[in-house]
Amino acid sequence: MIPAQPAAEKPLPLSQATPQWKREQAEAVTSPAELLRLVGLDQHPRWKEQAERAQPPFSLKVPRSYIHRMQFGCADDPLLLQALPQAVEHAEVAGFSADPVGDLNAQKTTGLLHKYHGRVLLVATGACAIHCRYCFRREYPYEQASATQSQWQESLDYIAADSSIHEVILSGGDPLTLSDKRLHKLIDRIETISHVQRLRIHSRLPIVLPSRVTETLCQRLAQSRLRCIMVVHANHAQELDHTTAKALQDLRRAGVDCLNQAVLLAGINDSVEALAQLSERLFEQGALPYYLHSLDRVHGAAHFEVDEARAKHLVAQLRERLSGYLVPTLVREIEGESSKTPL
Ligand code: SF4
């Protein structure tokens, strides 16, 4: 699971100098009752008792600026459903497991996964700004399997020793929850490895906490000798407002290529209308739709699954409706395969 406060990044006491995004992170809502009150659903028969029963180990966490994008009084709001724990998560469903994509088997050093040719993924932290209920790493043992700052050297040595590695992916958790100081230090060290050409950052923060895209961050990425790619994660057009538009524009001005990966989620975006709106708004805001992931079959997420035949049909309909560059590739991650598998 994602620990509430991973040892690697303990919160600093807030002061005048604390950046806005850190303040917002510290003020995130962690109680289902408070979330339901804020969206006017605290007396709603569907949620009231259920959300009280569905609590840890994978707790609720959602930034207030994201809650502001939820529709007040709407029990089926697509943003609410991504964040609110439900009792159904506790159901045992055959085929759903703690590590559905075999991350632990691909670990080469603490926090470094090497699955595919030419690139490696560094689990730089276990912390996230939001806890997405369908997360494939919701039971990931971050305490043992994410690289703390003191363990980065082992991973960097691994990368330096393999000249076929041209791209480093920073993931987590969410790598943009690292402080600027830690993040910049990590980028500095990756830049010293001459055969690495690209830095890819997988982050949901430009969507759920857009204030994280600061001038300092953009300047650091603009100055990098590496080609920088930001793969953000939005699942529904309603997540994209003027704040996300600014974050994506700032990244693009800094020379960062912006792509989006979404997860196909029952009840949230499993209609051609929702997927088309997502693609169009992403493009308007400066990110290309990249992947549409079929749900990774992690414990607690079975109620989000869309069956494969229906997923393929939805994407075929999307292709009829949109220009090709707006149609994400539908993929599934299968343990042991040499890349994501297109469906
Ligand atoms: S932000 Fe990403 S890693 Fe964090 S809970 Fe959501 S899907 Fe999982």
Walk me through this protein's architecture.
This protein has about 350 residues and is an alpha/beta fold. It folds into 2 domains: about 20-90, no CATH class; about 105-340, TIM Barrel, CATH 3.20.20.70. Helix content is about 30%, strand content about 15%. The chain has 13 helices and 10 strands. The protein has a 10-stranded mixed β-sheet with strand order 1-2-3-4-5-6-7-8-9-10. Strand 7 (about 255-265), helix 12 (about 270-285) and strand 8 (about 290-295) form a beta-alpha-beta unit. The radius of gyration is 19 Å and the shape is globular. Bound molecules: iron/sulfur cluster. The site of iron/sulfur cluster (SF4) has 11 residues, from loops.
Structure in a nutshell:
This protein is α/β, with parallel strands linked by helices. It has 13 helices and ten strands. It has a ten-stranded mixed beta sheet.
Spatial strand arrangement across the major sheet: 1-2-3-4-5-6-7-8-9-10
Q: How many domains comprise the coordinates?
A: 2
User: Which structural class do you get from the secondary structure elements?
Assistant: alpha/beta
Overall spatial form? globular
Bound molecules: iron/sulfur cluster
Individual helix count: 13
Q: How far from one another are the termini? A: 28 Å
Which characteristics define this entry?
343 residues, binds iron/sulfur cluster, TIM Barrel, single chain, alpha/beta, ten-stranded mixed beta sheet, disordered N terminus
